[in-house]
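Forum > Structural Biology > Help requests

Title: Can anyone predict the 3D structure of Putative N-acetylmannosamine-6-phosphate 2-epimerase?

Hi all, first post here. I have the sequence for Putative N-acetylmannosamine-6-phosphate 2-epimerase but no way to get a structure on my laptop. I'd be grateful if someone could post the structure tokens.
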Amino acid sequence: MRKREILERIYGQLIVSCQALPDEPLFGSEHMAKMALAAKVGGAAAIRANSVVDIVAIKEATGLPIIGLIKQDYSNSPVYITPTKTEISALIDANVDVIALDATIQERPNKESLEELVAYIRNKSDCLIMGDISTFEEGIAAEKAGVDMLSTTLSSYTPYTKDRMIPDLPLLEELAKKATIPVIAEGNISTPEEAAKALELGAFAVVVGSAITRPQIITKQFYVAVRDTAEKLLQAKQ
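Reply #1:
Sure, ran it for you. Structure tokens for Putative N-acetylmannosamine-6-phosphate 2-epimerase below:
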């Protein structure tokens, strides 16, 4: 029942990723909860959030379904999105609706396999599982491993996808045609037009993060456009 209800709520909808790094002005659960509430007012159907403290605050503030993850660096692995059972257990305790985890081919900490982690989640909870992938092959493998949905989150972020276009709509389209589970568009979507195009290409739902929730990045885009135009106008007058 939970799986069907969550999927029905996010189908064809906007999911907003509310995350801030420690060096960013809006870092902190209070700020992220307010940002998530603003996203809800704007129409977001669910929130993607990082860290237990942010997840708890956002759940209380919004009541929306939460796609939870924990970013954790390990010295022996490049995988950092919910890398191990330790992070999974914390997310289960936080009562997230969906656990997002790295589902790429990169070696995980403790040499745990994706299949092991999927089985662990199934045994411990009724959370849905989102596999964050960067290639078509990873998506198909993650589906076989048992995840409930795929997300194109990591395209251009893994070492072997640095040259992929952003947002990676071709990857989304290919997966949407071949996968039998929902494919979520996520990663570098910066305009409403790109979000709408993702749905047209077969996305089950669309996740947008920085273009909505990182005002310093949004401000810089306007600043650069204004600065460059002002310089051109000044040069034209000389």
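The chain is about 45% helix and 15% strand. The longest helix spans residues 215-237.
Shout if anything looks off.
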